[in-house]
Amino acid sequence: MFNRVVKAIPNLFTIGNLLCGLLSITFNMSGFIEIASVLIFLSAVFDLLDGRIARSLKVNSALGVQLDSLADIVSFGVAPALLFHSIAAPSILTSLAFILFPIMGALRLARFNVKPTIGYFKGLPIPAAGLPLAGMGFFFYSNAWVTLLLAILMVSPIRVKKL
Amino acid sequence: MFNRVVKAIPNLFTIGNLLCGLLSITFNMSGFIEIASVLIFLSAVFDLLDGRIARSLKVNSALGVQLDSLADIVSFGVAPALLFHSIAAPSILTSLAFILFPIMGALRLARFNVKPTIGYFKGLPIPAAGLPLAGMGFFFYSNAWVTLLLAILMVSPIRVKKL
């Protein structure tokens, strides 16, 4: 029983990550762009903590890995893309960037789960792409080229050292 | 080369599923509730086709499974919950149902990917929970108890026969 509770702790942080992503979308829908942006950063705090807590409690689990990706696609793929979509002036380029960002994010997450890399990441991790977009959103600044670049970097073969 | 193209076909359908989920959210944000609802049903068409095409082309892949879950959490977890959120009168019960629906959906998807069941599903599959919510949304009908029930059924031990 005690073991099960301890095992669930990191997953509660992952659910916190998902919840902040969800709330970011609802605040964005209501026009509270700054709050929507801050909530994505709060997702990142939960995302950083869940892995560290799992490692320090030695309760890493396959379920945790799956749950983490599902939270990440919402908080760092869909929510930042919607923030960009709310701010950017409509154009074909903007629509393309908005669509490609979460799709490339999903491909990045799926690829990592199938072939995990040790010590480094192949392609920009999705939080490292979502956070700049959220940060730009906070200042009501949008740039379709930067968004496209971040999307492409996620599926690029570049190596990024793990924090 | 030809093999790689054939292998990618089911994943294009999965990306179609994700794209419809994304567009459902943007139409919902712009107040086009019926279109947002129809797009979730279109996601389900893509979702049904990707698995069938993968099986008939014999190109089932681990990447496809991961990508499928990431698309499903957006199209059948987040998008229907946001539709419900847009229609329902604000209350603590409504907020609870809105939050729990995608969280239970993520738990359901994560559990299935870790322990796949053969011939049957354990817990209501996420499209079978998201589609009733999308259908209710089409008629501007919301019911927090039904939403909560669908959320709980996803993580319940009930067995559902595979289609």
From TrEMBL, chains A, B:
UniProt-recorded Gene Ontology molecular function terms: CDP-diacylglycerol-serine O-phosphatidyltransferase activity
Enzyme Commission code(s) on record: 2.7.8.8
Membrane topology of the entry: Multi-pass membrane protein
Keyword flag Transmembrane: yes
Top-level taxon of origin: Bacteria
InterPro entries: CDP-alcohol_PTase-I, CDP-diaglyc--ser_O-PTrfase, CDP-OH_P_trans, CDP-OH_PTrfase_TM_dom, CDP_ALCOHOL_P_TRANSF_CS
Location(s), subcellular: Endomembrane system
GO biological process terms held by the UniProt record: phospholipid biosynthetic process
Transmembrane spans: 12-45, 91-110, 130-155
Keywords annotated in UniProt: Lipid biosynthesis, Lipid metabolism, Membrane, Phospholipid biosynthesis, Phospholipid metabolism, Transferase, Transmembrane, Transmembrane helix
GO cellular component: endomembrane system; membrane
Principal subcellular localization: membrane
PANTHER family (UniProt xref): CDP-DIACYLGLYCEROL--GLYCEROL-3-PHOSPHATE 3-PHOSPHATIDYLTRANSFERASE-RELATED, CDP-DIACYLGLYCEROL--SERINE O-PHOSPHATIDYLTRANSFERASE
Similarity annotation: Belongs to the CDP-alcohol phosphatidyltransferase class-I family.
Database matches in NCBIfam families: pssA (TIGR00473)
Protein's UniProt name: CDP-diacylglycerol--serine O-phosphatidyltransferase
Organism: Neobacillus cucumis
